[in-house]
Design a protein that fits this description.
414 residues, Rossmann fold, 13 helices, 16 strands
């Protein structure tokens, strides 16, 4: 094992993977098994969350020094002072130190800085969601925590729900949808399994039905970990675009098909490669908009909000606008999601499609996805499972706050 390799080098290991997948559990197990062989130790948990609190870095530095010096840590007034004191404290002892949930290089530097400070044979373990966080620090040993497969997920769920590696008799058909609800997140499997442990079949039925209508608060918090870890609103908005379009789809589909995204410049020109076996049947559009800083609450701005789509090759143009539209409050972003169907010859592969957003509001960015159907030889037109993606709602326009609406479209020759 890496912690037991006997090397005199100062080792840095990075355990990385998606949120809730078990990185902290692995780090704790390794730490608890080995800390007694060293001259001191420290486990700093939830660094990302702690760093967001007032004086968060200074408090982490104090805890690190207190752990290393057996409660004899001196007062620290600022980060720079803490770095100096940590440097003196770690240079004369072999130490294992765990930095749990690091999501910024500044967090690492504020607590530990350079490995040259450490006494030979010391070990530093870092858990993070970001694989490339420490790419500037050469010589890190990388450990990826891989996702559980279907059978491993069921086994983990069963240990928490039944105290054994498989469901007890009569519960298999109930366990599978419960596991599917949690995805591959071990922490979510643990929470749901523990909550259903010892419950009768009718309670399971009721709980699973409720999960479909009202998500479990604890599980939602776990599943939100990855979203909250995104660095800024720009990344979060792109995440939401993809999530809205690909609800219920395989995870590998989204990043492959969501290829037309415009940020800042609200005009896109698309040329979809020609394929004789694939027809372009429509498009999905997602527009992120907000109230203009100088705009008052005028309901008429909805009539000024539309998407213009033109086939530059054939000289045809369509204009799509929402019949009803929710107006955002100040400092609030909203999404306008729509799905439109093309006629048989309105857009074909190899033709240029130009799309632009016009708005009386403030359209920040938008994303477009073309919808396809594949012609199966001898069977007419059928679904092409990888390519057909439509929005999961019945109405044509979906807005924040569940404001109902529809799309009005006008066509013209250019």
């Amino acid at each position: 094992m890496w912690l037991e390799d006997g090397s005199n080098a100062v080792g840095v290991a990075v355990i990385y993977g998606m949120g809730g997948i078990g990185k902290t559990t692995i780090a704790k197990a390794a730490y608890n098994r080995n800390f007694g062989r060293f001259q001191g130790s420290s486990f700093l948990a939830d660094i990302r969350e702690a760093a967001e609190q007032p004086y968060g870095f200074v408090r982490l530095q104090r805890k690190l020094l207190s752990d290393i010096q057996k409660g004899k840590a001196k007062k620290i007034d600022n980060i720079d002072e803490g770095i100096i004191k940590i440097k003196h404290a770690v240079c004369n002892k072999r130490l294992p130190i765990v930095l749990d949930d690091v999501n910024d290089l500044d967090q690492f530097n504020a607590i530990l800085g350079m490995r040259e400070w450490f006494y030979p044979g010391s070990k530093i373990i870092i858990t993070t969601r970001h694989e490339h966080l420490l790419k500037a620090h050469e010589g890190c040993t990388m450990f990826e925590v891989e996702e559980l497969n279907e059978y491993e997920s069921l086994e983990l769920f069963s240990w928490h729900a039944f105290g054994q590696p498989q469901p007890i008799e009569g519960y298999m058909e109930l366990s599978r949808p419960a596991v599917e609800h949690c995805g591959v997140i071990p922490l979510a499997l643990q929470v749901l399994g523990s909550s259903l442990s010892g419950k009768e079949v009718d309670v399971w039925h009721s709980a699973l039905q409720k999960l479909c209508e009202i998500p479990n608060v604890k599980i939602q918090k776990i599943l939100r970990i990855s979203y909250d870890s995104l660095r800024d609103d720009h990344d979060k908005n792109i995440f939401l675009h993809i999530a809205y379009f690909f609800i219920g789809k395989e995870k590998d589909t989204g990043t492959e098909r969501m290829r037309y995204i415009s940020i800042g410049n609200l005009v896109l020109s698309i040329v979809e490669p020609a394929n004789p076996n694939v027809k372009i049947r429509g498009l999905n559009a997602c527009v992120l908009y907000a109230r203009r800083p100088d705009h008052k609450g005028d309901e008429r701005v909805a009539s000024e909000h539309f998407v213009k789509v033109s086939n530059e090759t054939k000289g045809r143009m369509w204009t799509y606008s929402p019949v009803a539209m929710a107006l955002p409050r100040e400092n609030q972003d909203m999404l306008w999601l729509s799905h439109w169907i093309f006629g048989d010859d309105e857009l074909e592969g190899g033709e240029e499609l130009r799309i632009s957003v016009k708005s009386g509001l403030w359209a920040k960015e938008f994303a477009i996805q073309l919808v396809h159907e594949e012609e199966n030889k001898g069977k007419g037109v059928g679904s092409h499972g990888e390519d057909i993606v439509t929005l999961p709602w019945n109405q044509n326009v979906v807005k924040a706050g569940d404001v109902p609406g529809s799309v009005s479209a006008s066509k013209s020759e250019m």
